[in-house]
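Example record for the data management plan.
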Amino acid sequence: MQGIFGLRHVIVAIALALAPTSAFAIDEALLPRNLSPWGMFLGADIIVKTVMVGLAIASLVTWTVWLAKTIELRRKAALALQRTRALEGNIKLTEAAERAGDALDAVAQLIQSCAKEAELSGGMLDDGLQERVALRLERVEAAMSRQIARGTGVLATIGATAPFVGLFGTVWGIMNSFIGISESHTTSLAVVAPGIAEALLATALGLVAAIPAVVIYNHLVRGIANYRALLGDASAQLMLLASRQRDHRDFRLSRAAE
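Corresponding structural encoding:
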């Protein structure tokens, strides 16, 4: 009898020793092997993958627009400031037009437009000339402003829609998680956690795409406003030059000589 009781104790001890190991082995088998962002992306549903890829592309577009528009703004603003300062000196409209030549920058376009209207006016210096020059300068300013603002609308769209796109991926991932719970008839975290993690990753990518887009858009809007102010200063200076211009005959001859 003592031998039987001793054998029973040995069997119970072995069972107790093996039971936790088996449970842990099952849980480890159920858990996904790769919970890194890339691993969660590979394990995600095709819809969630599409959302993540779209958000990644949107983020790339955001930084590309930022780089391109920053370089463009700095270059054009520096040139506009240089030409505006040149107009502040003792210079005539004819001389300013000759310096501008056929350049395509904004201030050069303003100078050429002002000179063209003064030439077409036939030397008549009156209020009508001032109004016509102001109208031409206003149209050129509007055209140059539209040109420099091109591409910023994409940033506004990304900043407004990216969080909702990420939220769609979140909802889809959580829905798949509940479907997995229903099909597996279990509430184990090993079944629920991967889908929830994938859903939260979509939300995170949506924020990563949206937040920089909003910040960069506001930064570019301030830069464009400063650039428009420079164009306004150049237009005002040209209006002053046009009002001071008395010898229109000399202006017409210089334009004809070109």
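Summary line stored alongside the record: Confidence is low (pLDDT under 50) at residues 1-32, 246-258.
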